């Protein structure tokens, strides 16, 4: 994932200390019910599409933008399926981030899936019964996007 300029600016002042950042994930389905995935250039693993909103950018607009930037597919965000604070993540350079992920179910409305930037090695549509190996992050989000259940969030503990 390319580091947005506004984060580089923050890092100039904050160093590598923890930054709390927004993040979005887009689970994109086509009319055949297939899901759009990208094979990341940094990890070489298949993954769902996502990114970081620019300051002032609405999360749904970010999801749509990230899908197009990475895959050349046009989509519309249909609904929020998940909101989750992720565990802190330390990058190889020592930078620490923690993301508040908002996952959207999206519907493809145009474009042809292809690698559209340097963040992906490959992109493609996959039937739900023929997914490549995915981490739990991606699998859980796909499962939630397939469900008509209310938006998922971590339950609170009762006192």
Describe the structure.
This protein has 159 residues and is of the alpha+beta class. The chain has helices at 5-14, 59-71, 136-146; strands at 19-29, 35-40, 46-47, 49-51, 74-85, 89-90, 96-110, 120-126, 152-153. Strands 1, 4, 5, 6, 7 and 9 form a six-stranded mixed beta sheet that branches. It is globular and about 45 Å long.
How would you summarize this macromolecular structure in one to three sentences?
The mean pLDDT is 95.
| Overall form | globular
Low-confidence stretches: none
Query: Overall mean pLDDT score?
Result: 95
Span of the ends, CA to CA = 39 Å
Counting H and I runs of at least 4 residues, what is the number of helices? 3
Q: What does the largest sheet look like?
A: 6 strands, mixed
Look at the helices and sheets and give the structural class: alpha+beta
Write the H/E string, N to C. Answer: HEEEEHEEEEHE
